[in-house]
From TrEMBL, chain A:
Protein name in UniProt: NADH-quinone oxidoreductase subunit H
Domain of life: Bacteria
Main localization, broad class: membrane
Lineage of the organism: Bacteria, Bacillati, Actinomycetota, Actinomycetes, Kitasatosporales
Organism listed in the record: Streptomyces spinosisporus
EC category name: oxidoreductase
Topology in membrane: Multi-pass membrane protein
Transmembrane segments: 6-28, 70-89, 101-123, 175-193, 236-252, 258-285, 297-315
Short name of one Pfam family: NADHdh
Leader sequence segment: none
Cellular compartments annotated: Membrane
EC code(s) of this entry: 1.6.5.11
Listed InterPro entries: ComplexI_Subunit1 (IPR052561), NADH_UbQ_OxRdtase_su1/FPO (IPR001694)
GO molecular function: oxidoreductase activity
UniProtKB/TrEMBL annotation, chain B:
Coiled coil: none
Location of the protein in the cell: Cell membrane; Membrane
Membrane topology, from the record: Multi-pass membrane protein
NADH:quinone oxidoreductase/Mrp antiporter transmembrane domain span: 132-426
Transmembrane residue ranges: 31-53, 73-101, 121-154, 166-193, 213-234, 246-263, 275-294, 314-331, 337-365, 385-407, 427-454, 475-497, 531-551, 658-676
InterPro entries per record: ComplexI-like_HydComp (IPR052175), NADH_UbQ_OxRdtase (IPR003918), ND/Mrp_TM (IPR001750)
Domain of life of the source: Bacteria
Pfam families listed in its UniProt record: Proton_antipo_M
Protein's UniProt name: Hydrogenase 4 subunit B
Primary location: membrane
Record key words, sorted: Cell membrane, Membrane, Oxidoreductase, Transmembrane, Transmembrane helix
Length: 319, 677
């Protein structure tokens, strides 16, 4: 039966994203460093950081509560569940029936919410500031995400992610349609916002005026910080992988052969590395926009998503 | 078969006994006795509702009970659903209320008047869906409004704002009654009789214009009761000012009856209608959802936040009901059934989490005397159970897994996404917008409840009252625990409601969306492939959580957790005054939605007397007023006031003038009669 390959695919997704996420971050930093004329710390630096942090003693700041303690694990756990669900390597897995796009969007939001609560739980000004900004951005991203989901689900007739992806593999014309292109543009902006990249947030800043994500996690140290970092890196890998699965689905195993799975693994790594390199290169040339200009960017992406839905409705209606 | 009449009789007897006993009993016995009787009313109502959901039906008419019209009663599954929800909420909140009222002294919620009104209110909440004729319905509806008004006014000695909230509530609920009376008068006059059976039979012979008029009038009345914009103004006033158990009853049980009325009238009695009815309803729902949750995100009064969140959730339900009608109007009855099932499921879920949220807010109010989030904080260590229960309910309210709100919103979104199968340009424009509005309201709801929990319960106390808070007495915790158990059960096994929900949908004449729930645990749509297994999600999350906690421990050297001072960028442990407050948390959102919210700010700089360059005092004030109220109500109230002032000149006090008015009036009447006949 297919189950062995299916389970291997799920385990493979979780392991590859879990272990590969720091490498992807290291790779992106390296690309950026080279473009900026620096030597860079090497692709494996995030792993070395994680190893160092994990060996330190866990620290609980006085005055924080259970929300602060639980958030890192919850962030990683919710991301890991999504990683297991999303068809990164194979569309035919034992959990593919559960891989609903709305559920995926909601689980990603759950991680954001956990971290925002942790930021407020510290009772510091920075924590609250980060949480407030993060929730503002997250609440504005939500409509874009769900409308993109809507647009993608129209040709497939379902919100089930593996069905959408395998449908696109078999019918590549869906991707080249105006609706598909509009949806990819909308989703790409939403992904930038969800992962806290330039131009929405700057992952390498510690300047109070600009930071969002970093402000929430300032109080974390040791193993907790390692988990928070891993969670953020996994989210980036996951969302880039999701983008590639939705819009460049070729190579994802739709059947049950080991060879296809191995090929899918290699192609996944290549696709995500390429996307990461493009993003890193773009970040060299972009500047972070002011926080209160971010809504304009998100409104733009929302409009694209709305156009995607109406386009896909009217185009499918006439044909 | 005889469960329903037995349970309803029991509810009536118990409620009546409670109302009669309350004035007679001394203070010490009054609260527990009335509380137990009220809880029993709730249990009886829930039993009757559950029996109806289980497939029993019951009708009766008692000709002697009301003069002229008589009383007509009928219980079907739709009524049963609302009875069961109201009954369950009443039972849990009544238990909570015993503990709550016991600490409040002889006035307020423990007073004779309030304790008399409480069982009556509970009884009418259960009985309104039973009414099966216009007069019976209106009598029960008005009794419910009056009982709740008395309860809203319970704490009028303590705060002047209670009185104002009561006036707003009284006026608006009676405007609603007038609209409802007009709607039903037109309807009954043209259908020929006033029982619901006759209305149902006669509805198709009425002209489309009149049917539209009936729907618009009844729709205005019912959406006002549900707290939807623009007739929501009473809700954010009355809910915060009422004693907390009453707020819970109003927000979790009474507003539902607005939805019930709408479904009963629009889908059942009128038998559906043209698309414009439902598009209008969806517009009202969408506006309520986004406007309500935006105001909730701005509110720093915890109970006001929850009240506006009720407005939001009713908006979501109205979108579902509207979509159901719209799909029905275009002939897709299966999809209509699905959308209605989603809306009704959200009614149940919202009742569970909102009752719990209001009870938890009541516990906070009781422990600290504060509703202002800016002065709360740190309650998670002082009131761990209340904080945990609030968290369970808030998880339902933010519509994220594994909360119960997610399940019904997921179903609602599915019904809208798959609604594009229905042809029609209106559908193609409205459905994506509805999905976007639901998503936006869900996103802002997350921000609002992160604020409520994070600022109210986390961090450190921002006032002495919050620092000295104590956990609530056991009875209150038991009441809240019951509601939390309902939230968890609804989140994990919504399938148990499956057949009952299908029967409720079928009671409106739609086909039961039998495919919605199968296997007990799973939300599954048969003709459309999408499914959600809440238990699986929870299991996966738990497994991943264990992995995320366990793996790093395997690698890292096991060390004991140590405590350390907050770092705060090297600034050292900050004082509570430096922590983010609810107002500051909401500021970015407020700036983003500046054009919608139109905040008013006021900056007062007082310079030192000697020099204009030295500042003595700076006073900054910002208010986010309810803009709809500002723009819609104040002009109307102003015009009424001016008309009243102008009319005073007519009454000059001279008897001759009055005789003249009488004479002119008589002549005009005679002329009209002479010309008219």
């Amino acid at each position: 039966m297919s189950t062995a390959v299916g389970y291997a695919a799920v385990a493979g997704q979780v392991v590859v994203v879990g272990a590969g996420a720091p490498v992807l971050t290291g790779w992106m930093r390296q690309v950026r460093a080279r473009l900026e004329g620096r030597a860079g710390a090497g692709v494996l630096q995030p792993w070395r950081d994680a190893r160092k942090l994990l060996r330190k003693e866990p620290v609980t700041p006085i005055g924080t509560g259970p929300a602060f303690r639980a958030a890192p694990a919850l962030l990683v756990a919710s991301t890991a569940v999504v990683v297991a669900l999303v068809p990164l390597l194979s569309t035919d897995t034992p959990v593919s029936g559960h891989a609903d796009l709305i559920l995926v969007v909601a689980l990603i939001a759950l991680g954001t919410l956990a971290l925002a609560l942790a930021g407020l739980d510290t009772g510091t000004a920075f924590g609250g500031m980060g949480a407030s900004r993060e929730m503002t951005v997250a609440s504005l991203v939500e409509p874009t995400l769900l409308l993109s989901v809507f647009a993608l689900s129209i040709p497939a007739g379902t919100t089930n992610l593996p069905a959408i992806v395998s449908g696109a593999v078999h019918e590549p014309a869906r991707l080249a349609s105006p609706a598909g292109l509009l949806a990819v543009a909308a989703l790409a902006v939403a992904v930038l916002a969800e992962t806290g990249r330039i131009p929405v947030d700057n992952p390498s800043t510690h300047l109070e005026l600009t930071m969002i994500h970093e402000a929430m996690v300032l109080e974390y140290a040791g193993p907790d910080l390692a988990l928070v970092e891993l969670g953020a890196q996994m989210r980036l890998t996951l969302l880039l992988g999701l983008l590639s699965s939705l819009f460049v689905p070729w190579g994802i195993a739709t059947g049950t052969s080991w060879a296809a799975l191995a090929l899918a693994l290699v192609l996944f790594a290549v696709k995500v590395a390429l996307l990461g390199a493009v993003l890193a290169a773009a970040e060299v040339f972009w500047a972070k926009v002011r926080l209160f200009r971010v809504p304009e960017l998100l409104a733009g992406s929302f409009l694209l998503a709305l156009l995607a839905v109406t386009a896909s409705y009217f185009l499918s209606g006439t044909s | 078969m005889s469960t329903i009449p037995a349970a309803l009789t029991a509810a009536t007897v118990l409620g009546g006994a409670g109302a009669l006993a309350a004035p007679a009993l001394p203070y010490k016995i009054r609260i527990p006795a009335v509380g137990v009787l009220t809880a029993a009313v709730g249990v009886a109502g829930a039993v009757a509702g559950a029996a109806a959901l289980g497939g029993s039906r019951w009708t009766a008419s008692l000709p002697g009970l009301l003069p002229l019209a008589g009383t007509h009663l009928a219980v079907d599954a739709l009524a049963g659903l609302f009875m069961a929800v109201a009954g369950a909420v009443v039972a849990a909140v009544a238990v909570y209320g015993i503990g709550y009222a016991a600490g409040h002294g002889e006035h307020g919620i423990g007073s004779r008047t309030a304790q008399t009104a409480l069982p009556l209110f509970a009884l009418t909440l259960v009985l309104v869906p039973v009414a099966a004729s216009v007069s019976t319905f209106l009598v029960l509806w008005e009794l419910m409004a009056l009982a709740s008004l008395l309860l809203v006014l319970a704490e009028h000695r303590e705060r002047a704002s209670v009185w104002r909230a009561g006036v707003w509530y009284a006026v608006m609920t009676h405007l609603g009654l007038v609209l409802l009376l007009a709607a039903f008068a037109v309807f009954a006059a043209h259908a020929g009789a006033e029982t619901f059976t006759a209305l149902r039979a006669g509805a198709h012979d009425i002209s489309p214009t009149l049917r539209g008029l009936v729907f618009v009038l009844a729709g205005l009345a019912f959406t006002s009761k549900a707290g939807a914009v623009p007739l929501h103004a009473w809700l954010p006033r009355a809910h915060p000012e009422a004693p907390s158990p009453v707020s819970a009853l109003m927000s979790a049980a009474m507003v539902n009856l607005g939805i019930y009325g709408l479904v009963r009238t629009g889908l059942d009695l009128l038998g559906g209608g043209p698309a414009w009815w439902w598009l209008a309803l969806m517009a009202v729902g969408g506006a309520s959802a986004v406007y309500g949750i935006l105001q909730a995100a701005m509110a720093s009064d915890l109970k006001r936040l929850l009240a506006y969140s009720t407005s939001e959730n009713m908006g979501l339900i109205l979108i579902g009901v509207g979509a159901s009608g719209l799909f029905g109007a275009y002939g897709d009855r299966r999809l209509a059934a699905l959308a209605l099932a989603a809306a009704l499921l959200h009614v149940v879920n919202h009742a569970a989490f909102k009752a719990l949220l209001f009870c938890a807010a009541g516990s906070v109010l009781r422990a600290t005397g504060l509703r202002d989030l800016d002065r709360l904080g740190g309650l998670r260590s002082r009131m761990p159970f209340t904080a945990g229960l609030f968290a369970v309910a808030a998880l339902g309210a933010v519509a994220l897994p594994p909360g119960n709100g997610f399940i019904s919103e997921w179903l609602l979104l599915q019904s809208l996404i798959h609604g594009l199968q229905v042809p029609g340009v209106a559908v193609a424009v409205v459905l994506p917008l509805s999905v976007a509005l639901i998503a936006l309201s869900a996103g802002i709801a997350a921000a609002a409840f992160v604020k409520a929990f994070g600022v109210g319960f986390s961090a450190r106390p921002r006032s002495d009252a919050a620092a000295a808070a104590e956990e609530s007495p056991p009875l209150m915790l038991v009441g809240m625990g019951l509601l939390a158990a309902a939230c968890v059960a609804l989140a994990l096994v919504p399938g148990v409601l499956g057949t009952g929900l299908d029967r409720a949908v079928a009671a409106t004449g739609l086909p039961g969306s039998g495919a919605v729930f199968g296997g007990g645990l799973r939300v599954r749509l048969a003709d459309i492939s999408a499914w959600l297994s809440p238990v699986w999600v929870v299991a996966a999350l738990t497994a991943a959580l264990m992995l995320a906690v366990g793996l790093p421990r395997l690698y890292g050297r096991r060390r004991r957790r140590v405590n350390a001072k907050l770092w705060d960028c090297g600034g050292g442990a900050p004082t509570p005054r430096m922590a983010y407050t609810a107002t500051s948390f909401a500021e970015p959102l407020q700036r983003v939605f500046d054009d919608v919210l139109a905040p008013e700010q006021d900056l007062n700089v007082t310079p030192v007397r000697e020099s204009a360059y030295l500042v003595e005092r700076v006073r900054f004030q910002r208010r986010v007023p309810d803009r709809i109220e500002h723009r819609l109500y104040e002009p109307v109230l102003g015009a009424l006031n001016r008309a009243g002032q102008a009319a005073r000149r007519l009454a000059g006090g001279s008897v001759h003038l009055y005789l003249g008015y009488g004479f002119v009036g008589l002549v005009v009447l005679l002329l009209v009669l002479a010309v008219g006949w």
